[in-house]
Write a structure and sequence with these properties.
This protein has 15 helices and 9 strands. The protein is mainly alpha-helical and 420 residues long. Bound molecules: protoporphyrin IX containing FE (HEM).
């Protein structure tokens, strides 16, 4: 059913139906994630695909991510030396947020200046707010009131982001002429100044997109890393196989880097299996713009569509041992098998949604997850209280998170030499 919707009815369900009619940066009418499928969305999507998130742009910012991975390593090393426990989700939030801030806004948003911490706090607030809004949206009598129910909170978070982003925009404008390092903000400013652009974007559009990239990219990656680490800790066989692979490909003398990922098929399979069992966005919201018929069911215009990604990815008709963490599901023994697998998985593996409104950050997400999980497994052992991690879930908004966030004490396993 999900396949038919995404392939045959993709355009018809390419709006989310969340009506934003205010001027705020969070859930405002200049947002991209909530934008209806139309000229603005198409223009921004093209910009994301051809400039901001294109492979060459991702390649250019590799150095920034490598530095942040090292910083993450040293942070954990410090805790290991002091025998302190860490809450994985919080540490990974810092890592991904720093990476996204620096990739998108250059050096202006650093840990040292305290700006990264401010962004992080605002991201946490807007995630909590998003969850409340989405829940309200799903309850019929509240749907009409929707966003206006949370006006005060939306104003507060939007104001915080606006102040920060306006200052960084001005800094970028001042440096635009001399700036040869084109980060995302500089590229967007170029589009903003382009008189001949197909769509005239505003400063508000730029700021709203940033808010959304921070929230869409940071929280989902941190949640997925936490779940996958919990599965690894609970499955010593997986941990052992993962280490064997990393030790043989990367060795023990240097830190894993993102260029190693294509040579680490088991690590890639572990990441996918984590996303299959614990998708950070288990329910996807869309709306039918026109009435239609799907598999004999008549769907009236304006019907809300919820794709239950969690159910699709645990369907026993599609997956062997659907509730078990077995990364081997994603390993193919031969090249032709691999191609068949990729085709087949496209229909039933949906952690990033599907169709034209699917996640544009997939490539980056796999880099964040692969390097963070790879480094934690390569360099540290992880001690927990008790025998097993408690995998109880809790439902927050449309997100399935760990009811008991994963806390572990890192123990140094290897000490790779670091470049700086
Ligand atoms: C583990 C990490 C991630 C997961 C699981 C994830 C998942 C998703 C999902 C399920 C959607 C909705 C898709 C749909 O409706 O079909 C989405 C949308 C989106 N994601 Fe991601 N995402 C991740 C990381 C990222 C990153 C790193 C970025 C950006 C740098 C990003 C940017 C976006 C944007 C902008 C949208 C809205 C697309 C639109 O409305 O057209 N995501 N993501």
């Amino acid at each position: 059913m999900a396949y038919e919707i995404y392939r045959t009815h993709d355009v018809n369900v390419s709006s989310r139906g969340i009506i934003a009619n205010n001027e705020y940066l969070v859930f405002g009418s200049s947002g991209f994630v909530t934008a209806p499928y139309g000229d603005y969305w198409k223009f921004m999507k093209k910009l994301l695909a051809t400039k901001l998130l294109r492979p060459q742009a991702i390649e250019q910012s590799r150095g920034v991510r490598a530095e942040e991975l090292e910083r993450f390593y040293f942070n954990i090393l410090d805790k290991a030396t002091k025998k302190e426990s860490i809450e994985i989700v919080k540490e990974v939030m810092k890592l991904t947020n720093n990476m996204i801030c620096r990739m998108s806004m250059g050096r202006s948003c650093s840990e040292e200046s305290g700006e990264a911490e401010r962004v992080r706090k605002l991201v946490v607030k807007s995630m909590a707010l998003t969850m409340k809004i989405v829940v309200a949206y799903l309850i019929q009598p509240l749907q009409k009131l929707g966003i206006s129910l949370f006006k005060k909170e939306i104003m507060g978070v939007s104001h915080g982001f606006d102040e920060l982003l306006e200052r960084i925009l001005v800094e970028h404008e001042e440096k635009l002429e001399e700036n040869h390092d084109m980060d995302m903000m500089s590229l967007l400013l170029e589009a903003y100044r382009d008189e001949k652009a197909e769509y005239k974007i505003t400063r508000k559009h730029i700021k709203s997109l940033f808010v959304e990239i921070f929230t869409a990219g940071t929280d989902s990656t941190a949640t997925a890393t936490q779940w996958t680490m919990a599965e690894i800790v609970n499955n010593p066989n997986v941990l052992e196989r993962l280490r064997e692979e990393i030790d043989s490909v990367v060795g023990k003398a240097r830190l894993i880097q993102e260029t190693d990922l294509p040579n680490l098929p088991f690590l890639q399979a572990v990441v996918k299996e984590g996303l299959r069992l614990h998708p950070p966005a288990p329910l996807l919201i869309r709306r039918f713009e026109e009435s239609c018929e799907i598999k004999g069911f008549y769907i009236p215009k304006d019907t809300t569509l919820l794709v239950n990604v969690n159910a699709v990815m645990r369907d026993p008709n599609s997956w062997e041992d659907p509730d078990e963490f077995k990364p081997e599901k994603f390993l193919a023994s031969s090249k032709s098998e691999q191609e068949d697998e990729v085709r087949e998985q496209a229909l039933k593996f949906l952690p990033f949604g599907g169709g034209r409104r699917g996640c544009p950050g997939i490539k980056l997400a796999y880099i964040f997850l692969g390097t963070a999980i790879g480094m934690m497994v390569q360099c540290f052992d992880w001690r927990i209280k008790g025998e097993k991690v408690n995998m109880e879930e809790t439902f927050e908004g449309t997100s399935l998170t760990m009811a008991h966030p994963l806390k572990c004490i890192p123990v140094v396993r290897i000490n790779p030499s670091i470049s700086n």
